[in-house]
Amino acid sequence: MFHIGFVVVFLGLGAHITFIKGLTGLSSHNLPTNLIVVVGVITLASLVAALVRRLINPVQRLISTFDDYSTWLVTVLPLVTGLAAAAHFGEHYENTLAVHILSVELFLIWLPFSKLMHMVLFVFSRGMDRGTHDTSRCEGLRRVYV
Predict the structure, then answer these.
(1) Cα–Cα distance measured from residue 99 to residue 105, given in angstroms and rounded to the nearest whole number
(2) How far is the C-alpha of 80 from the C-alpha of 99, rounded, in Å?
(3) What is the DSSP secondary structure assignment for residue 137, as one 8-state letter?
(4) What is the helix (H) or strand (E) element at residue 100, kind and residue range?
């Protein structure tokens, strides 16, 4: 659930669209801010639920490493700080926005060295899987079911 939430928040918020337009020249219509906030809260709740599940499930807790927990934290920070910036939380909005931008930069630095790279690399691994499996055993099944 949080995968979709991140994409909706990133590509749907007007401030993000303005930022992307400044970088690439690409633009689109933004979604209502209230909808983005609701999606952000749902995304945050799903990330918290994933952490709770990891902590409660004995098998997941056993195989979890520092990388798993630090990746969760680095993933949650931009979302929490973005929601705080959207709510104008704190005395100075500029400080909240600066913390949000720094947390996004940390996320982008952390991304290539973490398990989160599956977001980008899964396409290539799926393509590689198709070429490595022996499907000759399935020929008879294909004729039966096709």
Answers:
(1) 10
(2) 10
(3) G
(4) helix 93-110
Identity at 144, one-letter amino acid code: V
Q: What is the pLDDT along the chain (146 residues), one digit of tens a residue?
A: 788 999 999 999 999 999 999 999 999 999 999 999 999 999 999 999 999 999 999 999 999 999 999 999 999 999 999 999 998 888 889 999 999 999 999 999 998 888 888 767 777 776 666 655 555 555 554 454 44
Q: Cβ of 31: how many Cβ atoms within 10 Å?
A: 16
The single-letter code of the amino acid at 145 is Y
Q: Please, what is the Cα angle at 88 between 86 and 94, to 5 degrees?
A: 100
Is 17:11 a contact under the CB 8 Å cutoff? yes
In sequence order, what DSSP letters do the residues of 8-43 get, joined into one string? Answer: HHHHHSHHHHHHHHHHHS---PPPPHHHHHHHHHHH
Number of C-beta neighbours around residue 81 at 10 A: 20
Tokens encoding 9: 């928040």
Helix axes 2-12, 33-56, angle to 10 degrees: 150
pTM above 0.85, yes or no: no
CA distance 79 to 6: 8
